[in-house]
Amino acid sequence: MGGAAGDGSAGDGAAEGDATAGPDPIVEAGEAAARLRERYDELRRLEDRIADLGRDRVEAAADTYRRAHRVLDQYEEDAVGSGDFEAYVRFEGEFANAVDVGDDALAADAFAAADEAVDKKRLSESDFEAAREALDPAGDYVDLLADRDDAVDDYRIARKEARQARKDLVARLDELREVAGMADADLDADVDRLREPVAAYNEAVREAFDDFYKSASAREVFAFLDRADATPFVDVDVPPTDLADYVAEYEAGAEPLPTLLEYADYSNSKLEHYVDDPGALRTAVAVHRTYVERLDGESLTLDWPPAAGDELAYEIDELIPLVSRVADDETVATLRSVRDLARDDEYERLRRAAKVRDALDESELELVRTGVIDDRVREAERTLAVVKDVLTETER
User: Fold this and answer.
1) What pLDDT does residue 6 have?
2) C or N: which end of the chain has fewer Cβ atoms within 10 Å?
3) Phi, then psi, of 305 in degrees rounded to 5
4) How far apart are CA 155 and CA 161, in angstroms?
5) DSSP letters of 359-387?
């Protein structure tokens, strides 16, 4: 889904390069299901081929092939020519045993031909090469088993990918259904009519509180925060008790908060010229520097998209006397204009459009604008059904 909530000061469209501009989960799920089906069919083909030949017979032929090659590799250097006669004798015996299979064994002719190729009184390198060539037909069964093992690995990977693709598609389908639920919004509505006064008020009240924070005494600021804390819809961070007590009880509380922070950086000898109890200031102010520095007017702003009409009007009624204490008449007038809009018959249509534009990214808005969102939902549902069927049908 689209952009995060703000105060309306930014544009409605989502930023370029949003998540939905990447791979399409619907397409990826369909492709993952197709790959899984292909990998499963290939594995079944190989397993059926092995089953038709007899699994034990295939594995026996492969074992014989590997054993024969090991003997050839082990003795070739010593058993050729007029070399080590003892090695020659051992080779003849071990190779004959290695390729000794029944007449009905797979590749029996290949093993017999290999044995014949080295059944000589004197061996050359070409005899060993001939034996290896004779064994080649039996190597097909080694390759068959290797292909089967590779197919198992490919199948497992494809199945894992298909399960992840199903999960991603379920999440995307939920998003698309949510988008479809917003298709009733009038995206041609003049949302600026609502957004501009909200943004103007929010910017003005932030600046007004900042000026108040810098110029008013710490006592005045804390008194304002206490009153704001008692006001519904205003969520302020009230001062820590020890800091509030210091501001109320010590003369330094008549200074602005930025001044108290500045004092907290002074050396003891310099600070004695400004406050009557440097230790008390350090204890109360310095330890709460982060709290004091973070105070701002954000709690006085309006949400974007704004609340429902009745709720927003009530919220503004509560805010007006509070904002009047820190902001000028123009800011208060802007706030009242937003309240008037909240009571207008057109408000809910504007608010609905604002909510949808804020919630959806540009690609999702385009689905709504072009009226194809329901088609995308159905496409995602069909693809999800296919993926589920393939996962069920290819389970092992």
Assistant:
1) 44
2) C
3) -65, 155
4) 10
5) HS-HHHHHHHHTT-HHHHHHHHHHHHHHH
